[in-house]
Amino acid sequence: MRVLIFSLVFIVFGCEQEVEVDLTKGFEPEIVVSSFFSPQDSIRVLVTLTQPAYSNRYRRVRVSSAWLEDGFNQRHQLIVDEHFFDTDLLSSGIPDFTPGSAVTLVVESDELDKLVTAVDTIPQPAYLRGFEIIPVKDEHFYYVGGTIIPPIMDDENDLYYEIILYSTEREPDDSNHHFYKYDYPFSHHYLITREDYYPGVMLIGAVGPPTLLWRSNKREPFYIDFYYDSPSIHWNPIDGYRFPKHHLKIELRTVSKTYFDYKTSLYRQQYAVEGDFLYGLAPPVSVRSNVVGGTGIFAGFCKVDTVIPLEARSFK
Description:
Elements: H1 2-13, E1 31-37, E2 44-49, E3 65-69, E4 75-77, E5 79-82, E6 87-90, E7 102-109, E8 114-121, E9 127-135, E10 141-149, E11 159-167, E12 180-182, H2 190-193, E13 212-216, E14 222-229, E15 234-236, E16 240-243, E17 246-255, H3 257-274, E18 291-292, E19 295-310, E20 313-315
Parallel strand pairs: 1-19
Antiparallel strand pairs: 1-2, 2-6, 3-4, 3-7, 5-6, 7-8, 8-18, 9-10, 10-14, 11-12, 11-13, 11-17, 15-16, 16-20, 17-19
């Protein structure tokens, strides 16, 4: 009996001791590059260093030289713009890259004695046709649907797409629209919901992903649809809910497989970290990388967009 009481006292009042673990021991920083590039825009590459977990000591990577190479072995030197925690690599204007061409990134750091490279191919553009937006009756959602015209290709390989939404959040000035990226659209279209990054109906409390990605080997025009929430909602006891006039910009990207694999694995990782109220945490997910000599992403895309105005509406 005394032994049992002593054991209970030890369990209840047992002491604890803090143990410091040096996570920096043997840690070797890696160069991280991040860039999604298009032949329609100037190119920006963000360069950082990996850090030990829970470390408050930030170290900026010093880039000695960086450039881009196209399929004709033409070198496009990048401007090195150093900040306190990171470094930007900037193109001087828009490089003369064309869809279908491969672009190589090279980053040199004499300080770390490292050479980082990455290569990706710019996909051919697709096009939007006949997109329309319909307010859902007595709901704050809007239904969006339209036709995608795929690139003209000779093979039957998958093509990869992404839709990104931008919206004005309030009554826009007719002379100057300020668009903000809109997150968390959702869809019931099978091309989107069949992708493994898209949250299933059994994932309790999950919202839609920041953007919508899917793959398809269709070569004929096809229909795609999705929903988005009103960017701004006002309520008062007299008029009920009021949704101000706004504009929605729909940006369609044809993206490379590297781009698609990176973003879908990133979304899967984010959902895994958030976990699920009923099922708990999901297994860990590794984010894809195409960088040699370091880590990160360097991936190409082409884009088109359309802007649709929405009138104000209300319901009680």
